[in-house]
Each structure stands twice: as C-alpha cells, then as structure tokens.
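Quiz preparation item.
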C-alpha cells in the first residue's frame, strides 16, 4: 500500500508543479501557438491550435488514460486508483 501511496503522491506533486508553472506564464491563450505542417491529404484544421487548446487537449488526454487505468484495474479485480 505504501508504494501505491508514493505513486499517487508523485502524481499529485507533478500536477501541482505543472499548475504553478502554468499560472506563472504570461501569454495570450487565444493566439495561435504553432504553425501546423501541410498534411498530404490536404486536410486543414479550422484554425491554428492555441495554447488554451493545447493545454486543454493534454489534460483531457491525461484524464482519459486515468479513467482507462481505473477500468482496467477493476476488470482485473484490482482496486482502482485513488484519483
């Protein structure tokens, strides 16, 4: 149990450090953040990704995988994660 608590605490610490970094940044969250490459099939996004979109996508993707971990653990008769 102690090992799982350490992993959970490390996860919480990393999130706290990330929040501190993001809160200290000065940027226009709606300004285009990067230029996308030209796709071979001609597809173009409706607009260039903004920092707001990038951060939202990263955190959304992370929460998706956290949910996967919980489901897979419970399906295999392990207690799910504490987050």
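Solution:
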């Amino acid at each position: 149990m102690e090992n799982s608590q350490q992993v959970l605490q490390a996860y919480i610490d990393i999130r706290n450090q990330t929040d501190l970094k993001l809160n200290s940044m000065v940027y226009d969250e709606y300004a285009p953040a990067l230029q996308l490459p030209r796709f071979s099939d001609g597809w173009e996004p409706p607009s260039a990704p903004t920092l707001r979109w990038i951060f939202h996508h990263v955190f959304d993707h992370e929460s998706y995988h956290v949910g996967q971990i919980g489901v897979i653990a419970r399906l295999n008769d392990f207690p799910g994660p504490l987050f």
